[in-house]
Amino acid sequence: MKVREIAEFLGLDLVGNGDAEVVSVADLAIAGPRQLAFFEGSDSAIETDASCLIVPTSFLSQAGQKMHMPDRALIAAPSPKLAFSRVAAILHPKPELLCGIHPGAWIDDTARLADTVSVGMHASIGKGSRVGARTQILPGVRIGDDVSIGEDCVLHPNTVIESGCSIGDRVVLQAGVIIGADGFGYVKEPNGEYIKFPQIGTVVIEENVEIGANSCVDRGALGETRIGAGTKIDNLVQVGHNVNIGRRCVIAAQTGISGSVVIEDDCVIGGQVGFGDHVRVQSGAVIGSQAGILPGKIVRPGVWWGTPIQPLDEYKRQNAHVKGLERLKKEVADIKKRLP
Amino acid sequence: MKVREIAEFLGLDLVGNGDAEVVSVADLAIAGPRQLAFFEGSDSAIETDASCLIVPTSFLSQAGQKMHMPDRALIAAPSPKLAFSRVAAILHPKPELLCGIHPGAWIDDTARLADTVSVGMHASIGKGSRVGARTQILPGVRIGDDVSIGEDCVLHPNTVIESGCSIGDRVVLQAGVIIGADGFGYVKEPNGEYIKFPQIGTVVIEENVEIGANSCVDRGALGETRIGAGTKIDNLVQVGHNVNIGRRCVIAAQTGISGSVVIEDDCVIGGQVGFGDHVRVQSGAVIGSQAGILPGKIVRPGVWWGTPIQPLDEYKRQNAHVKGLERLKKEVADIKKRLP
Amino acid sequence: MKVREIAEFLGLDLVGNGDAEVVSVADLAIAGPRQLAFFEGSDSAIETDASCLIVPTSFLSQAGQKMHMPDRALIAAPSPKLAFSRVAAILHPKPELLCGIHPGAWIDDTARLADTVSVGMHASIGKGSRVGARTQILPGVRIGDDVSIGEDCVLHPNTVIESGCSIGDRVVLQAGVIIGADGFGYVKEPNGEYIKFPQIGTVVIEENVEIGANSCVDRGALGETRIGAGTKIDNLVQVGHNVNIGRRCVIAAQTGISGSVVIEDDCVIGGQVGFGDHVRVQSGAVIGSQAGILPGKIVRPGVWWGTPIQPLDEYKRQNAHVKGLERLKKEVADIKKRLP
Fold first, then answer.
1. Which residue, A216, A232, A297, is CA-closest to A267?
2. Is A139 on the interface with B (CB under 8 A)?
3. Which of C80, C72, C79, C32 is nearest to C54 (CA)?
4. What is the pTM for the complete model shown?
5. d(CA C32, nearest CA chain A) in Å
6. ipTM for this prediction
7. In this structure, are residues B243 and B233 in contact, taking their beta carbons and an 8 Å threshold?
């Protein structure tokens, strides 16, 4: 790809040699010729051999003019990282890992696969399941009965989709993801034994969702567990039964979401957060890592922190008070001495 | 199933049309004709099209009489949720997912399987292992050598049972569970390198246990790791080597249990709890989510919370004190001003 | 193995019958004839039927002489546990689980395997991958394209190594481990949608590393994620993209390490610890379980605890102050009464 074509694709201005060729992206620190890098700071002393550098618009107007660029180019972007990511998606397309159905895969006769679906060795697809065009099912993936999978999905090795679940278009499941295991719901018998509350619902994953390695999304008890379009979930996350996550949420690793939690659109959740059941997180809320949220709590928009969660400001103030306890104790001791 | 048969099965009274047919269970909010729902509150204004509703005994005597029920029925139960769960288990039996041994499974010649065992495609069973009647081994399950598995178990896709482990009757392992990985025990050499303390023990899982997706139960170092009958474990839980969990315990998602911990019968453990090694939890204790328990601690019966854990009452009082710190600080400042 | 041979192997002194035979190791409490046990305390009243006991040097000189040992022996060691572990590794070698390539495995024609590699049923190896001598690849393991695996590794069932990753000699991956899933990095479009920041780097795992069941190590975004030689990682641990872990570190279960964290050599990290991104932990630091470390923090050598982490001493002192709050409040109330 020529730098000129990259600038055109991004709809951005370039300075320098638009004919330079770029074949891959790289980190600024190690990028070499025929590579594209990006830069978000304002330091004017950039040394790089990259053939093309995406820089902040402000940088170009200030320092960029001074760079010596016989055979390379700068592209000015309002968000260099975003522009870089867009180009990377073109220069580094998802490899077409497979072509067609591997002879070592096992597909039930009643499953319906689009012509362009790939299925890897030792993958299996159950009765009545449907898979959309260009979806790639990698080795060892387990798809149960009556599962519906959209177009252009990538299911990494050894993921499991239990029967009856539904996956939208352009969904990516990293390796080892489990969709549709039974939720954790039991009722106590008078003799103290637990019997299972029915876990016969389903999971619906909307388009453009990505779920990280070894994460789990349980099926609804009676209804559904749903993950909204464009939401991104990291590794080892637990999503309980009947959880409803909105669109464009981001949830970091090892967070646990109990049953019937609702997370509205555009929330950002840190890692190792714990949600009690029936929590509702309102649209746009941000919850810091390791926070803990009591059952039934309504979390309003804003930034939240700690266990039990508080607004970040309060959390910081309280933390400062706790850190000041030694001094406060001393003050009280001094006062006592001065008392009549 | 007729409503009359359901009431007989439960040994409970019914009011209304005992001849109504019920084919499935559903949530009260969406239940329709030929469905069974339940209701635990006391609100008298229930609108539902369900053909049968299980209600609290008190409700039936008060409000239920007024409901208009030409072609449906109410059943009165001391615990409607329990009664509902019992009926659901009959109306929605575990699907017989497989019949016989799939030709794509691989079973060692020396393994002994009861006639009625099902083994899915790409599952494998090692030397000398035994599997009891009606157990279902789903696709991609890995069973090592000399494993013993009881009757009526369900092993979901891609679970792994390493060699020498023992699984009782009616055990359910959700997808991706790992039983019998090596425990985490090392000894430091004088040069700073770690060598493995032997991890050559085993795992014993007693009858009626259920373990959630992607949870791990490590084998004992020299002895065994044991999970008692009727205990239910959620997803992504870590059970370390030589842990001994009693009967009828409930352990929520992402909790981590270090080596040699003992949890006695009938304990309830929240999610994301962390146990130091050699903790002993006495029978009937309840530990709140995200709690942390220092190594060697003995946890008496009662409700415990926080890190390090405290009785819930103390935890709440202390939390209130911390919240009141701002005010306390102000009081001290005021006192100082008033000092002579 | 005769006790005399064991003592020679360890280079340690023995007292008693050097001709006694030992065939296996066992816990002191249950060890019987022809077994080896060890003992680290100073209690002089040991009752055991073990044929050989490894005891502290001091014990032998004091109490050991008095033991009645017609057909058994004591070996004196500076670290009995270490000596025991060394002998256990010889008496209980890793079973040679497999011999050769199972006919149910699938190996791409372009992969290059040493003659002595074992590959289990339903395992798969992609294009251009290389596997070193004596490495055991157990059933259901998924190895992508262009993966490099060293000698004497053991890859337990259903582990996944994505394309392009590199594994050194003598590495053990417990079941369900995922190496090389995409890291969690997205950039927000102006319309609020997230697009993926390129995750096209790799993972390098150096020699003698062990990783626990269902743990995940993400590939670098542009560069690499690296785990240094001799480091041991427990189950369900998350290692984010571009993390760099040094040599001989120990990381307990369910800890989460965010992107670009650096952990230098010889650190010890407890369970359920959470690292913000770009944290640097200096060589020799010890971090207690459930600690939380804010992004960008530099953790100096020493023992650290709590969220946000503090030196252990400070953490304890602060905890004591918080516990004393009820009393402090009372003191302030008393003072107020005594004010003029």
1. A232
2. no
3. C80
4. 0.95
5. 38
6. 0.94
7. no
